[in-house]
Design brief:
single chain; about 500 residues; mainly beta; 6-stranded antiparallel β-sheet; 4-stranded antiparallel β-sheet; elongated
Length: about 500
């Protein structure tokens, strides 16, 4: 009988789970299949310290990639990082804070918490950051909303947002002055919800969205005298992970206190409920909420959250949970990374490809979009603090079905199952796969695993196992070439009711 792997549903009971109970180092590719996740391949020299923020922007066809650690800001120059701080060691970024970058025209602005003043870098002109003019407040959050730069979580007033003069992020007039009124600069203290966690720009018909710890507000431009109106659209539901917000097109994704959500102009919808929310909160270490980073692979319609998993002892992220917003399905992955962010590719000439290997060893073909400048990509900083991308060989992958019984296979609930073989439906040579049969005679009994069994020439892993409840785990070797894994066949027969 053919059993699809199905959607990854670890929050559902194992017995007769309609989906996969394990989906590791794969991506939810289509409604009926998983695809491989590539290993990380580094593309830069290492930063001397762990990064605490990164971003990439394009100005006049040139990509500018920035990163920062606890004391300095850097700009990518080929494969090396140039320090571009206002002065060496100028910054003091708390271990629980992240450097937020925002683009306004050809200007990159960064904020890093309540210690340092906002910084600015004119892309294509400047060689180093400088203090943002106009005496803006120190802030933890920044975003571009309409024709303004908006800062949030202000020193001394964590529930406040404060915006610049219209179309001039270097001008921050004195609030309530005639100058501020003329330039439409003002601030707003949000009455409920606590600290501002994140701000996004346009989502659908909304000009901006402000995520607080326990509330979410829409931010709508009205013009003077109010400039912006704020309306609470979610209460007792806010953003739990300040770095978990992913703004893509007309929606955003975020981690709330009780799970994962998407939000549009119509409000929030749960995307992890009954699927992965419980799994995530059990697997996450429960510490370092600031170390949950979200980013989108817009090409493959994937939202990814990097976080410290259950076995993590260092607090450094090592696990991905992945959501396909088209198929609404999930998967997981194991990675050695400290930060994930939306990057933009840099154009390479043929001569510049030498550092990545030769024509036979390049991880991606010459016509891949990663070699073309200006394309949106997903990048990470790996465990060595090097900029890296998912362009290496396919990672070793594992998929496991839910538990089936005689009721599933033969429409006889009390019938034992004699499994003779399992045939995986994965488009890779049999030598790249192995199958483990997991079985038990009672729902409260411990599992027994067979040895990992190779696939024979007929495409079947052979077994002779009689049990009441069975499930199959398929392992795909690292570096195997494949594109779709959809399910498997049980070669099984009835084996009595004892």
């Amino acid at each position: 009988m053919s059993i699809p792997f199905g959607a990854f549903l670890p929050d559902q009971p194992i017995f007769e789970n309609p989906g996969a109970t394990v989906a590791t180092n794969v991506v939810p590719l289509t409604a009926g299949s998983y695809g491989p996740l590539k290993a990380l391949a580094s593309i830069s020299a290492a930063l001397s310290n762990a990064p605490q923020g990164a971003a990439a922007y394009v100005v006049d066809g040139t990509t500018h990639t920035f990163a920062g650690d606890a004391a300095n800001l850097f700009k990518l120059n080929g494969a090396t990082w140039d320090e571009v701080s206002v002065s060496t060691g100028a910054y003091t970024v708390a271990s629980t804070d992240v450097i937020n970058f925002v683009q306004y025209g050809d200007r990159c602005i960064s904020v890093n918490g309540h210690t340092d003043v906002p910084q600015t870098f004119l892309m294509g002109t400047d060689s180093a950051f400088s203090n943002l003019a106009g005496s803006p407040p120190k802030a933890k959050v920044a975003a571009a909303v309409k024709d303004f730069v908006v800062l949030g979580n202000i020193l001394g007033q964590e529930n406040r947002v404060h915006w610049s003069a219209i179309d001039d992020p270097t001008d921050w007039p004195t609030i309530a002055s005639a100058d501020a009124a003329a330039k439409q600069s003002d601030r707003q203290d949000l009455p409920t919800g606590g600290d501002v966690q994140a701000i996004t720009g346009a989502i659908g018909g909304l000009d901006g969205v402000v995520f607080c710890r326990k509330s979410i507000y829409q931010m709508q431009y009205e013009g003077p005298p109010a400039v912006f109106s704020f309306r609470e659209i979610e209460r007792d539901r806010g953003c739990y992970g300040p770095n978990s917000v992913i703004n893509v097109g007309n929606q955003a994704f975020y981690l709330g206190e009780d799970g994962f959500y998407s939000i549009t102009a119509s409000g929030s919808l749960p995307i992890g409920s009954q699927k992965v929310d419980n799994y995530f909160f059990k697997d996450w270490t429960g510490a370092s909420v600031h170390a949950i980073y979200g980013a989108a692979d817009v090409i493959n319609k994937l939202a990814m959250w990097l976080y410290p998993g259950e076995d993590n002892t260092s607090g450094v992220p090592d696990t991905l949970i992945i959501y396909n917003w088209e198929t609404k399905q999930w998967s997981t992955a194991e990675v050695d990374a400290s930060l994930i962010f939306r990057d933009i590719s840099v154009a390479y000439t043929l001569d510049q490809l030498d550092s990545f290997g030769n024509i036979d060893t390049l991880a991606d073909s010459l016509d891949s979009r990663i070699w073309i400048g200006g394309n949106i990509l997903l990048s990470v900083f790996d465990s060595s603090n090097k900029l890296a991308r998912f362009t290496g060989p396919n990672k070793a992958a594992t998929l496991e079905t839910g538990e089936v019984s005689g009721g599933t296979l033969f429409n006889k609930p009390h019938e034992r199952v004699l499994v003779n073989g399992i045939r995986p439906y994965v488009n890779t040579p049999a030598a790249n796969m192995a199958v483990t049969l997991r079985h038990r005679d009672g729902l409260g009994a411990s599992l027994t695993d067979t040895a990992s069994t190779a696939i024979a020439a007929n495409g079947m892993a052979g077994f002779t196992v009689s049990s009441r409840y069975v499930r199959a785990r398929v392992s795909i070797s690292a570096s195997s070439s494949w594109s779709h894994a959809s399910g498997l066949d049980f070669d099984a027969q009835e084996d009595g009711t004892l």
